């Protein structure tokens, strides 16, 4: 199954396209409900246990009716509660209810008493306003219940497109969705509420995707493996790229981490330009690093006269001063590619305009965390997905918005969501390693959107490899095993 991510309206379009190709809606719902029942049986380890299915007024509820029927047929004692009137059900959901021969109780928290497993089929893609009244009470009761919870499509209360929670959503053990994942399955806070995600095949033909042309996908190696740089057997260090990093006078660790990561990921040479006062600190840190003292931004700009220095990183530990501003503007006007990180966002706070005027475009990757993002782009409304997309469109650059659910956005509207990063990566200097990884790939000529994607994924994989107790210094050392294990 591909890593495309469908918005709610795209999922409805996929349903419609499947029906247009002759797959009846009732069959889609039957398969959806069967997939839910199958997971419910697995969750209860194949041993029949008391199940409560809470069904809502739409097709999510319809899936619940189908799942209830299959569970009951397989010997699970099922109680079914419906929010709303049975006679008010329409379409496929009405059909699904007609196939259920057991009693239909009014949905109420009391139905959860004695259940070992609850199936949350209240609302899925059709949630269009914040939960309140009875619906909110039911979701709160599920959240408080001491039993296994399986969510149909999404935990009810989750907004499918942006991962926000509209009022409340219970923490599911498993969420079963259909055909493809939706943004909420990968974006916090909703991602946490989903538990383990199962994507079930319900017979929607893959071919419907070509007309839908999803702009969002999971960041998987399949997207960029073919473009991943490898050393040529007849090559030399210069055709593996020469990366240039601007270090600063005080926080030298950040640029050192980035440099180490860039060397490990295959940049042929890495030059670190720094104030003369910091030369010693950089020189003793890494023998394979070229250290170049620069007194001012003009001296830094002169390093760009050598066209072999083909990728630039500014920001980590650079110091948010006028020198960084001028060096950044010089780098942008040199028509190279590169990464802007950390102090650049402070030096250009609320001044995206100057970066754009100097030549910011899609050869550049910006890697802010939330705080840095707000510094450069101001307080934008909306989800992280929406904001990263808007910022990419506004700046013309690749935006990699860091966090547990890193969003990588291209100005043309494409978005990749990176989901392999463990929380252990939330440690000082880990972002500097990430910018060094992306820098190395840019230096080796990789397309910037792919370089950002591959860098984020390898960063996550390195985090997983190190596991608990990792510090940022460990990450560059994990690059060799990560590359080996993943045939990169
Ligand atoms: N063939 C298919 O299409 C397939 C679809 N599939 C399944 O369908 C699901 C989508 O179904 P759906 O579109 O019917 O939406 P659903 O999530 O059931 O909710 C709609 C209802 O909820 C109500 N409502 C909304 N917000 C509310 C609130 N805050 N508080 C209270 N009520 C609220 C809303 O009321 P209204 O706004 O009309 O007043 C309406 O009655 C999808 O998630 C998947 O599980 C699968 O079977 C695969 C095949
Ligand atoms: N909870 C988390 N789960 C997974 N990854 C995380 C989490 N928190 C932070 N990260 C990742 O760790 C890195 C931290 O970067 P950053 O905040 O720039 O740190 P620093 O400035 O110290 O280098 C980013 O790549 C971010 O995506
Ligand atoms: K649900």
TrEMBL record:
Gene Ontology biological-process entries: metabolite repair; nicotinamide nucleotide metabolic process
Gene: nnrE
Swiss-Prot/TrEMBL cofactor(s): K(+); Mg(2+)
EC number: 4.2.1.136, 5.1.99.6
HAMAP family, A to Z: NADHX_dehydratase (MF_01965), NADHX_epimerase (MF_01966)
Record SUPFAM superfamilies: Ribokinase-like (SSF53613), YjeF N-terminal domain-like (SSF64153)
Catalysed conversion reaction: (6S)-NADPHX + ADP = AMP + phosphate + NADPH + H(+); (6S)-NADHX + ADP = AMP + phosphate + NADH + H(+); (6R)-NADHX = (6S)-NADHX; (6R)-NADPHX = (6S)-NADPHX
Residue intervals of the YjeF N-terminal domain: 11-210
Xref: NCBIfam families: yjeF_cterm (TIGR00196), yjeF_nterm (TIGR00197)
Function (record text): Bifunctional enzyme that catalyzes the epimerization of the S- and R-forms of NAD(P)HX and the dehydration of the S-form of NAD(P)HX at the expense of ADP, which is converted to AMP. This allows the repair of both epimers of NAD(P)HX, a damaged form of NAD(P)H that is a result of enzymatic or heat-dependent hydration.
Domain YjeF C-terminal: 220-486
Subunit structure: Homotetramer.
UniProt organism field: Niveispirillum lacus
Binding site for AMP: 402-406, 431
UniProt keyword annotations, A-Z: ATP-binding, Isomerase, Lyase, Metal-binding, Multifunctional enzyme, NAD, NADP, Nucleotide-binding, Potassium
Residues the entry annotates as binding K(+): 60, 120, 156
Residues where (6S)-NADPHX binds: 59-63, 124-130, 153, 254, 317, 369, 432
GO molecular function: ADP-dependent NAD(P)H-hydrate dehydratase activity; ATP binding; metal ion binding; NAD(P)HX epimerase activity
Note on how the cofactor is bound: Binds 1 potassium ion per subunit.
Protein name: Bifunctional NAD(P)H-hydrate repair enzyme
Family listed: In the N-terminal section; belongs to the NnrE/AIBP family.
